[in-house]
Amino acid sequence: MRLLIQEARDAKVTVDGKTVGQIDKGEVVLVGFTNGDDEGIVDRMVDKLLKIRIFPDEKGLTNVNLASFGGNVLAVSQFTLYADMSQGNRPSFNKCLPKEQAKPLFDRFSATIKQKLPQVQFGIFHADMLVTFTNVGPFTILLDSEELGYGKEKGDGH
Length: 158
Fold this sequence. Notes:
Radius of gyration: 16 Å
Strand content: 35-45%
Shape: globular
Distance between the termini: 13 Å
């Protein structure tokens, strides 16, 4: 699972000309899944996302998490986070989890984060969306569950 987190001053997502999600200050989070991802990984990634300290404290240091900052999240499913460009110039999407398997995981992500951060907003899974936002900094972080050691391991229970 990958999360691309971008600090935003404001953000919105529209589908067919209608705003379906909108936030003021906070994070735009693009969410992608790959083979081997499961509900345990989703839960761990949500916890990590909410603990990340990227917002300024009283001294201007990046030392405050989203809840303490008083920010919101706009989360959007984004299968292309697993695009493979290792061969040629056209991306391969073989590493992307098929939509039939990814949707339940995005639903789990949505439900889990909404329990912990009620002001979260979402795009529409598998819709043709327009996402607009003002990136602060710019500040962008890529979280990868495999790099964090959240993959399936013997005895992991996930």
